[in-house]
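Batch manifest, entry 17 of 40.
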Amino acid sequence: MMLGLLLARAGVPVTVLEKHKDFFRDFRGDTIHPATLELMHQLGLLEGLLRLPHQQADHLTAVIGGQQLPLADFTHLPTHCRFIALMPQWDLLNFLASEAARYPAFHLLMEHEVTALTRHGNRVTGVEIQTPTGPATLAAALTIGCDGRHATTTASAHLHTIETGAPIDVLWFRLSRHPNDPENALGFLNFGQMLILINRGDYFQCGYVIRKDTFVSRIQHAGLPAFHASLLSLAPFLADRIDQLAAWDQIKLLTVQVNHLERWSAPGLLCIGDAAHAMSPVGGIGINLAIQDAVAAVNILAEPLLANLHRGAIITELTLEKVQQRRQLPTRITQTFQVIAHHILMTFLGNPAPMRPNKILRTLSSIPLFRRTTARFIGLGIRPEHIRH
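Output type: structure tokens
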């Protein structure tokens, strides 16, 4: 959606295809980081965005073995917003769609599901789509796959995926939130478990980290009362609402993946975001990294696309490769950080003994420079992009 907004703003005709009839579904990734908020400021959209219901987290704290450790302090970032905005992703998407609709070059087609790519020789020339009225095709000078970790575009193009692997999965669910509840946007760790609570105003979006492929064999097999007990051992203040989790179908399994395409592009095709590099939920970085990809893609491709529009110039493979060259290093560094975090989690997941934060972590969390550095990495990322067009 950000890609479509930016392309249309630059005068490039763009059509965004969305297979659902609306955006109202649980994306789970609902953290808008300072780097993304800064882009919204550059577009003149920040004030309007922040009028939408949201919560602000200017610090991140972990509760390890009952001891609070401050890990990130965003209040010193060189940005207009020195906080993470916690906002349902459907609100962000609807906002971007409404802003993009102001540009005549922007077109959004809901309930249009891409089923395959079309080709002329070895060049991608558009997509096959399933619409409310039946199958159709849509031609394009350039097709950009933003369709996530199970992307039809990458599968149809037979692009090679390199799997890094992830030893964890995450269970997502909701519990109501009370005004006097502690605010925490990172996690509770103890007894070989980890619980993430994201403040959504009147409810918590909860993430419970488990070893990969153990949801059915261990968690469900132990029964729902045992799961309730596990949650309460981490966050006892949830006791008065734990019965809200009354059935397993209220709990959704996110199978965590960390991978990247060997090549993000083919003639006539570019993939960005999770379609090019599936991210772990560690740090809530995925949505923000995808938006950075979109900005870089427009910065690099807007002029060639306008040249195609006016003179019929072909978007070359060399031009498409520049997007990967620009965004590959930030992606690899971020994924390396996530893989390290996975290994750290695996050292205690499943160990029922009470945890106590080690001396190194306790010392680091007490150092302001450490908290500012982690905030910069999480909030701005590596090589943040800026709007050019």
